[in-house]
Here is the input.
Amino acid sequence: MYNFKFNFDKQDYININQLLMKNSKSFKTAVTLLKFSVPVFAAVMPLLYQKDFNILTVLISVTIAIAWLMWFPRFFKNSTSKKLSRKIDEINDQSLYQERNIKVDDTGFHGNISRGIDYLGFDKVTKIKEDDGYVFVYTSKIHAFVIPKSVVKNIEGFTNYVNSRIGTKQL
Here is the structure.
C-alpha cells in the first residue's frame, strides 16, 4: 500500500504541460516543421531572387539559419512557459493548489485524484510512465493524473506494483 500527500504549485502545472507537449507526437511534428521551415526559407529565398551568385548573401543566409536553430528551442520553451503561466492566472482556480491525498491499495487509487474523482480502479488504468519529476498514471491516451516523484519513496517499486495490477494493457 502506498500513501501520497502533496500539492502542486503554478510551476508544477507549467512543467507538467511542457512534459505533455514534449511527449506529444503531433506537437513534436508541428514544432519540428516550425524549427526547420525558417532556416530553409532563409537559405532559399536569397538564392531565388539574386541573379548572380554572391558569397555574402549565402553567408548571411547561413548565419540566419544557424542562429535560428540555436535560438529557437530556448525561445519556444520560454514563450510556452509565459503563455501557460498567463493561462493558469486566467483560470484562477484555487482548487488547483489544494492538498491531494492519494492512497493506493489492491483495489486501486483512492482520494482526491482529479476533479470529481475519488476512486480509480486498476481496471481503468492503461499505463504508468515516469518522466523528469513526475509519475503519470494514464487512464486513456490523452488523460492522466500526476504524482510528483518527490513524494514517491520507491519509484521502481511503485511502478512495478501498478504495472502488476494493470497487466499488459497497451494504449
Notes: The chain is about 50% helix and 20% strand. The chain has two domains: 2-6+96-166, 10-94. The chain has a mean pLDDT of 86. The longest helix spans residues 55-91.
